[in-house]
Amino acid sequence: MKNHLHIDEAQHGYGVTRKMISFNQVHKRYPSGYEALKNVSFDIAEGEMVFLTGHSGAGKSTLLKLIAAIERPNSGSVLVNNQNVGALKSGALPYLRRNLGIVFQDHKLLFDRNVFDNVLLPLQICGFDHRESSKRVRAALDKVNLLKREKANPIALSGGEQQRLCIARAIVNRPSILLADEPTGNLDAEYAQEIMAIFKSFHQVGVTLLISTHDESILQDSGVRILTLRHGELQHNPSSNTSASSGQQA
Ligand SMILES: Nc1ncnc2c1ncn2[C@@H]1O[C@H](COP(=O)(O)OP(=O)(O)O)[C@@H](O)[C@H]1O
Ligand SMILES: [Mg+2]
């Protein structure tokens, strides 16, 4: 019992913080038979910012997709905001996704519409009225410093600007959780730092962030907790205090 309390405090920093994302002995096997995640357990507290790293093919994208219920675990549980998202009925997915912003690895920007309309799209799906949506779109573009480009076509933006646009689109719903899959993957160091500064500003206002990256310049000395995957297994990382599962203490 004492041990349990100790670990709980270490994870959460202080007593009142609750778990926002919780994996318990999660296995994910693709229909091909490939085991992409093996017995993965970890917790992320509300308002925490965490990096997810590991070699190409280690399972980073798979792990993020499980949180967003884009993929489902074969066994184990994935809790997001205390909801078992692996067992969600498809009708409940929009409610989960409203609380979740995702910056995908492969952009998914729409080049048949301008910057403003790319960010507007998630709000249109949710059925916000025109005035409220415009306000939110501009607020989101402002946060990533793209207000001046709202009429541009995304094709005319630099790589760093396109990535910022993806972030604006991910946060326009004001989600409490933001997932980003290698958001600085193809960017120069300077642009990568810019993107990280944006994420840190979300962290400061209480958003929970999980960011996959194998960008050493970002990981080094960041002071941010790092989860490391290797061939689908979470590595025990002695420098971070929470790669052990919460479900396996005595
Ligand atoms: N839809 C899929 N079907 C079959 N195998 C997949 C699928 N998606 C990913 N994989 C495999 O699962 C492993 C982990 O992939 P992924 O999660 O994308 O790793 P990472 O993001 O760390 O590069 C890889 O070997 C990949 O080939
Ligand atoms: Mg990936």
| Shape label | globular
The Rg value, from CA coordinates, equals: 18 Å
In order across it, which strands form the biggest sheet?
Answer: 6-7-8-3-9-10
- Quaternary structure type: single chain
Query: Can you summarize the main beta sheet?
Result: 6 strands, mixed
Number of discrete helical segments:
8
- Quick check: average pLDDT? 88
- SSE sequence, one letter per element: HEEEHEEHEHHHEHEHEE
- Give the % helix: 25-40%
Could you outline the blueprint of secondary structure elements for this entry?
Layout: H1 2-12, E1 19-29, E2 35-45, E3 49-53, H2 60-67, E4 75-80, E5 83-84, H3 93-98, E6 100-103, H4 115-126, H5 130-143, H6 159-171, E7 177-181, H7 189-204, E8 208-212, H8 216-219, E9 225-230, E10 233-234
Parallel strand pairs: 3-8, 3-9, 6-7, 7-8
Antiparallel strand pairs: 1-2, 1-4, 4-5, 9-10
The chain binds adenosine-5'-diphosphate and magnesium ion.
